[in-house]
Design goal:
The protein is α+β, with helices and mostly antiparallel strands. Helices cover 33% and strands 32% of the residues. The protein contains 2 helices and 5 strands, in the order E-E-E-E-H-H-E. Strands 1-2-3-4-5 form a 5-stranded antiparallel sheet. The relative contact order is 0.20.
């Protein structure tokens, strides 16, 4: 398990042993576990968003997360 990204909006954890990535949208309180090609796409696109200009990053992150909104169906439970 490796924490890839954590900020007030998004929490992303990679599970390399099973080629999966867990994504939690903190705004919605929902998340999903992505694997295979979907996980690979998410990793590449997240890296691209994070490489962008810092002052535009929040807006770009919102737009990026909206692409995966339909997949985020599991309630996030914080313990």
């Amino acid at each position: 398990m490796q924490i890839v990204f954590n900020n007030p909006v998004l929490y992303v954890v990679s599970y390399p042993s099973v080629d999966s990535i867990e994504v939690i949208d903190k705004r919605l309180g929902r998340g999903t576990l992505l694997s295979g090609d979907t996980a690979a796409r998410f990793r590449v696109e997240l890296a691209s968003v994070l490489e962008g200009e810092e002052d535009e990053r929040d807006a770009d992150l919102d737009i990026f997360l909206d692409q995966f909104d339909a997949l985020m169906t599991q309630p996030a439970i914080y313990q």
